[in-house]
Amino acid sequence: MGCSISKKSKANYWDFASLASETMFSLDEVEAVYVLYKKVSCCIVDDGLIHKEEFRQALLRNKGKPDLFVDRVFDLFDLKRNGVLDFGEFVQSLSIFHPKSPAADKILFTFNLYDLQHTGCIEREEVKEMVLAILKESDLELPDEVIEEIVENAFNEADSNQDGKIDLEEWKEFVGKNPSLLKNMTIPYLMDVSTVFPSFVENKIMLI
Amino acid sequence: MEKDVLFGKYKMGKLLGQGAFAKVYFAKNIHTAQSVAIKVINKQKIVEQPNMMCKIEREISIMGRLRHPNIVRLYEVLACKRKIYFVIELAKGGEFYAKAAKGPFTEELSRKYFQQLISAVGYCHFRGVYHRDLKPGNILLGANGKIKVTDFGLSAIKVIKDHIRPDGMLHTQCGTPAYVAPEILRRRGYDGAGVDVWSCGVILYVLTAGYLPFNDPNMMAMYRKIYQGDYRCPTWMSDDLTHFLGRLLETNPKTRITIDEIVHDPWFRKGGLFKDKGPEFEFPFYHDKDRKDLDDGFLCHTVQQLQQQKQEVMGEEASTSTPLNAFDLISFSRGLDLSGLFNKNYNPFEDSEKFISGFSEDEIISTIREVAAELDVKVHMTKKECVMDLVGSIGNFIARVEVNQLTENLVIVEVKIKGGDSDSVSENDIWKKKLMPKLSGLIYDFDSQHVEEIDTATEPELSLAISVD
Known about the structure:
Chain B: Residues 10-268 form the Protein kinase domain. The complex is a heterodimer. Chain A has eleven helices and four strands, in the order αααβααβααβααβαα.
């Protein structure tokens, strides 16, 4: 429609080479991520930007219903805090999930992710809220005392100074002991994103 | 990155061969110095078909797990925008075609090759993989002179050939029809196993006679001969062989000899099968001598690989069973798994269900083993404790079950089912309709918690009773 020209200029606006130099991605990989970005960014509104609803739909395929975790990830991706993701934000944030990205970046990302209220600490209520959300997502019901027990156990382990909240230092130590907590923080697929098999599926879909 | 190093990994060497749609190069893995062959297919030549990508992914993931001395190993599949690269085992003895052209061979030598061929074909059929294009051109020779069949499962990839005609598939399917079974020519639905048996018959004929059983410079005349099963055995062939060929080249696929019957044929068995020829001649074909071997090496996104990668990320510590903490639980969320962004087919565990149980990890694992045994489903424990894969009788992946301690008295059981394409529907049914109902006794019921507390003693028996049902 009328915005097709501006869309085009948007695409050309991004300097893939400098994005590649700023991130863990090679130039080829940035191009491959762009293919993905384009696909996600036009799935509801074809304006060359990823809206929250589009992000939800791409991840959960649930028609863009609100989801605590997806929305948190989106907010962290939204570096400019303007409610949409442009390609630069998308590449930079996704780069943290690259297998080659330093663990410190990944740890910091999870810390911010779980610090729902942006208080600089992960608090009991936040953990409980997330546990409730994941149980709901999995169609599991647990009595309140079991949930309290689960939260309590986590704090006994992670909150080394026992002040009732987990700060960044405590979080680093806790993740050090439980490396599986970073499992979502590496997307193996991002290694050689332009070359591994599924990308060829991706490209194929683009052609059709 | 050097230009002749493919994906920073394979140093490309000379062209080894060129087929109608693929070029094969020598290459060396620069990290391991392993010599390989790389088959390059141009994507533009691939015929678009519905569900093709799902099919290809499925077949490739099975092919990657095939380990047989007479099958060319597939190590890895890579792709870029325009090309697909199949990284395969280098067959050092060259093409069987060149050797076969020097025939005819004695019946003993022909039998030796044919037994290797049937061993390979039977092994694949047992795992649900069919070749559908067996011919001497797809057979290579290993360094020890043993045959190695290549391109198993690649028939899912249909390639536009030069002589494509508007009227359809037949002409796109096969370069030469000489090895093609009559039911394919009739264009009825056909069964991959029977088609492969026919082609093996043609190959055996070529080895022992020195020329094609069905041949005519006129293509239509050749079709007619195949269709009618019109061939003649040379007089020097033994009666046993002539009879055997008659069973292999039986035009009716329903009455054609099967792999199981081939193995019992007198000509095939002559001179003994098992003792002096090494373990690869074990029939039937479902002996995986070393199961562990199946769990490594293949880099396409098989279940094994995902598990491996996850373990690498998690580190070895995670492989001992530690209770799940609140954050482990949270990280189950699909919303936090960004690999979901890339492709719905990417994550092999599209569907997952969880339930809470008051039984111990060991009790749950043994119950699942019992139920699985009844349904002829194999249980493979993975490297990680309390994680098991359920695999069907033909090596088809059904589900992965993971048991984790949640609190002192409760465990969480997560069942991951391969999602996505329609091919896996039947596997999902095996879980949902057969396995899961029998496990329902394990699920912890909080509503009736206090009632059960009175007769907890009966509960294990209850679940046993259900599983025996």
